[in-house]
Design goal:
This protein is mainly alpha-helical. Helix content is 63%, strand content 6%. The chain has one domain. It has a 3-stranded antiparallel β-sheet with strand order 2-1-3.
Length: 332
């Protein structure tokens, strides 16, 4: 957490009117991306290839503007949640390498596929925003903001809301998975609410998981408020009442996107991602896990997509819904 605090403090000197990939933005993005990549390798939270992927997306996202720092918020909180009570999780989830080898460092290290699944789409949308609309813009739907070009701000706001929805979904899904698995009650299958399933089953949900989904989205909304305050975008509202309304809408929007994203991910996990269950060891496994015991049986879903692919699809769907459906609803 100390590293994140230092990075935020450094931002203050550069943030105001920072041009995308200008001198200040490039220096800041380079320093932050290198720091993220090196720290991830030292903490063994990312593999070597994963840290290189983080270096690339970190530079591109932070270089586009302060909202790109939501990637660091996701990384910091998501990594902490993954490591939280890891050994307790390994007792129910055979997918964790620590359940077989006892090496938690191997378990928590994420590869480039996982990094890109949680950042690639947001990076592409951020680059499109820079290409078409330049610097980060306030979220404005149905108002030309004095430019006589209503479509300009509307479309820019769609991209912004889509990027927010992306980060909210990623953090919400991570917290729901990593914290929800510790729930005392057995989860029920999202597609068959009357059916209880083993803890760790894809598509298995709990009340605690829903709560953490909302928390993940709320955190992204809150961090976006902070970054927009630093950049001056939040203060562009003409009155204190409109600023407060914008903050409330941003928090509600991000929380809703987090919950919607987790629901979509759970439905996909219960249908097109296969879970195996071993009645002997009482552990669940993913279809693409190595060393699945012969006694493990197909339990839920079909083997169409793996975990990273499900995450990517759910994030893409929520990004589209958040940017082009929920955004105009929450920011009229």
């Amino acid at each position: 957490m100390q590293v994140v605090v230092v990075e935020v403090v450094v931002v203050v000197g550069y943030c105001y009117s920072m041009e995308p990939f200008g001198r200040n933005a490039t220096v800041l993005a380079t320093a932050v991306a290198l720091g993220l990549s090196i720290r991830a390798r030292r903490k063994q939270s990312l593999t070597r290839a994963g840290s290189l992927a983080a270096l690339a997306v970190g530079f591109l996202l932070v270089g586009t503007g302060l909202r790109g720092f939501n990637l660091l918020v996701f990384y910091q909180i998501g990594t902490s949640a993954t490591k939280h009570k890891h050994h307790a999780k390994a007792k129910v989830d055979g997918s964790l390498a620590g359940a077989r080898s006892g090496n938690s460092a191997i378990t928590t290290a994420r590869g480039p596929g996982q990094v890109l699944a949680c950042s690639l789409l947001a990076t592409l949308l951020s680059l499109l925003h820079v290409l078409w609309y330049g610097s980060e813009q306030p979220i404005v739907f149905g108002d030309d903001n004095g430019t006589n070009d209503n479509n300009y701000y509307y479309n820019a706001s769609c991209l912004t809301c889509g990027i927010m929805a992306h980060h909210a979904t990623c953090l919400a899904d991570t917290l729901a998975s990593e914290m929800g698995i510790l729930a005392k009650n057995r989860p029920f299958l999202i597609t068959q609410p009357w059916k209880r399933v083993p803890t760790g089953t894809n598509g298995g949900v709990t009340g605690e998981g829903f709560f953490w989904s909302l928390v993940g989205g709320f955190v992204i909304g809150l961090s976006t408020v902070v970054f927009d305050s630093l950049s001056g975008l939040l203060l562009s509202s003409s009155s204190s009442s409109s600023i407060i309304a914008t903050i409330v809408r941003m928090l509600l929007f991000a929380s809703t996107c987090g919950l919607v994203g987790s629901l979509i991910d759970s439905v996909l996990g219960a249908t097109i991602q296969q879970t195996y269950y071993d009645p002997d060891t009482k552990l669940v496994y993913q279809a693409n896990d190595e060393g699945i015991p012969k006694s493990a049986q197909p339990w839920v879903g079909i083997n169409l997509l793996n975990n990273e692919q499900v995450n990517l699809v759910s994030v893409a769907l929520t990004t589209a819904v958040g940017g082009w459906v929920l955004g105009p609803m929450f920011f009229p």
